Amino acid sequence: MSRDGGIKMKKNIAYNSFEDVVKFATNFRHLLHANPELPWEEFETAKRIRKVLEQHNISYKECATTGTIATLAPNAKGEHIALRADIDALPMSEQTNLSYASKN
To answer: Is 17 helix (H, G, I), strand (E, B) or coil?
Structure first.
């Protein structure tokens, strides 16, 4: 998003199958999980989320420095829903031995 509040749009990414979508989403979640950031310090997390939104041609607005509001099909008729997610991490050491365990 530009500093003047405009919305960025980029070329859409195509997937060959639903499994490809799930694989992308899982890998992205693992990337975010492996690189946690504390509250109000989620600068890289916000940057990664916004990049993925741009790659998928999803409009968004920045808010509260690290917040992002994305809009899917804003002109669609019918009922709409809102989803909310936190992106901050707790200051703790992860001991799961998972391949995507927190590196911080």
So the answer is: coil
